[in-house]
């Protein structure tokens, strides 16, 4: 779990992830869940706490779920029953400390916990979290030119609270790399260590119901079920839908004809935006 408040920027290590989920934590502030498999990351920052909907996405990957703290208020936002019910392989720095990450004492808590992938692989092994995980794969394809039914999408604009905010996102198509480059809050989104611009081969925008939980400012996002979606790849937009049949079931994306969408090989970002949000392309 990597936070995205303005106090936690710039992030480190997102560009090394194979898959990144972005969704609202509280108050329109988004949070990332970055999934690492092929590549190591020398620094991953800054690590924050668990939410139930991210656990649902981690469960479908058979992942080792890494976070620092958790929501545990009684009621619909309490993560403990979900971690237990789904038998999540969990690494929680609130209890495991430097087995999970370290605090940068030059920064204010809680925006100061960092880690690295080699530490996490080692800790996972020490706890007996054997791999590789069993998961239901998506479909993949070779890069393809624009198809007649698709709509050209040289840029994608989306927001999680209000347009023009620090959390507004723009993805700009890079024809040379056949991918999208990320802008956040009106400026290029870059890695804090390397300065590398964040990019993705596929950007899937998933519209999901976000509603208040009734517990403090915490939200609930309906991850199980179905809804509309738009997948951006090869410079075009494929409008369709998403479906997830259970808490641990794989989220899948379909075109308007009901065919499962095949992704380009490479980094994929899933942007989970509140249902009804404006997405321009």
Structural notes for this entry:
With 281 residues, this protein is mainly beta. The protein folds into two domains: 125 residues, YerB-like fold (3-Layer(bba) Sandwich), CATH 3.50.90.10; 142 residues, 3-Layer(bba) Sandwich (YerB-like fold). 10% of the residues lie in helices and 37% in strands. Strands 1, 2, 3, 10, 16, 19, 20, 21 and 23 form a nine-stranded mixed sheet that branches. Strands 11, 12, 13, 14, 15 and 24 form a six-stranded antiparallel sheet that branches. The two termini are 28 Å apart.
Defining traits:
281 residues; mainly beta; YerB-like fold; 2 domains; 9-stranded mixed beta sheet; 6-stranded antiparallel beta sheet; 4 helices; 24 strands; 10% helix; globular
Radius of gyration: 18 Å
CATH architecture of the largest domain: 3-Layer(bba) Sandwich
The total number of structural domains is 2
Number of discrete helical segments: 4
The major beta sheet can be summarized as: 9 strands, mixed
Q: Between the first and last Cα atoms, what is the distance in angstroms?
A: 28 Å
**Beta strand %:** 35-45%
Number of strands: 24
CATH class of the largest domain: Alpha Beta
What is the topology?
Layout: E1 2-3, E2 19-26, E3 29-35, E4 44-45, H1 52-59, E5 64-67, H2 79-85, E6 89-92, H3 93-96, E7 102-103, E8 113-115, H4 117-126, E9 139-141, E10 151-152, E11 155-158, E12 169-174, E13 179-184, E14 187-188, E15 199-200, E16 202-208, E17 210-212, E18 219-221, E19 225-233, E20 236-244, E21 252-255, E22 262-264, E23 268-274, E24 279-280
């Amino acid at each position: 779990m990597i936070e995205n408040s303005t106090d936690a920027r710039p992030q480190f290590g997102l560009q090394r992830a194979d898959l990144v989920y972005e969704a609202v934590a509280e108050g329109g502030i988004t949070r990332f869940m970055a999934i690492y498999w092929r590549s190591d990351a020398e620094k991953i920052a800054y690590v924050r706490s668990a939410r139930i909907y991210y656990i649902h996405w981690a469960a479908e990957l058979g992942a080792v779920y890494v976070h620092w703290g958790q929501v545990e208020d009684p009621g619909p936002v309490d993560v403990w029953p979900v971690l237990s019910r789904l038998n999540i392989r969990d690494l929680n720095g609130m209890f495991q400390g430097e087995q999970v990450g370290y605090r940068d004492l030059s920064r204010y808590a809680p925006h100061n916990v960092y880690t690295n992938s080699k530490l996490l692989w080692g800790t996972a092994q020490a706890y007996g979290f054997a791999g590789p995980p069993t998961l239901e794969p998506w479909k993949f394809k070779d890069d393809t030119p624009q198809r007649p039914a698709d709509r050209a999408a040289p840029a994608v604009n989306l927001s999680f609270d209000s347009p023009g905010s620090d959390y507004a996102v723009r993805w700009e198509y890079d024809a040379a790399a056949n991918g999208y480059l990320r802008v956040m809050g009106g400026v290029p989104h870059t890695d804090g260590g390397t300065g590398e611009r964040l990019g993705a081969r596929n950007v899937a925008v998933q519209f999901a119901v976000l509603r208040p939980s009734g517990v403090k400012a915490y939200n609930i996002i309906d991850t199980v079920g179905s809804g509309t979606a738009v997948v951006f790849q090869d410079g075009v937009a494929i409008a369709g839908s998403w479906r997830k049949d259970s808490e641990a079931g794989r989220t899948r994306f379909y075109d308007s004809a009901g065919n499962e969408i095949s992704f380009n090989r490479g980094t994929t970002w899933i942007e989970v935006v509140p249902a009804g949000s404006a997405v321009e392309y």
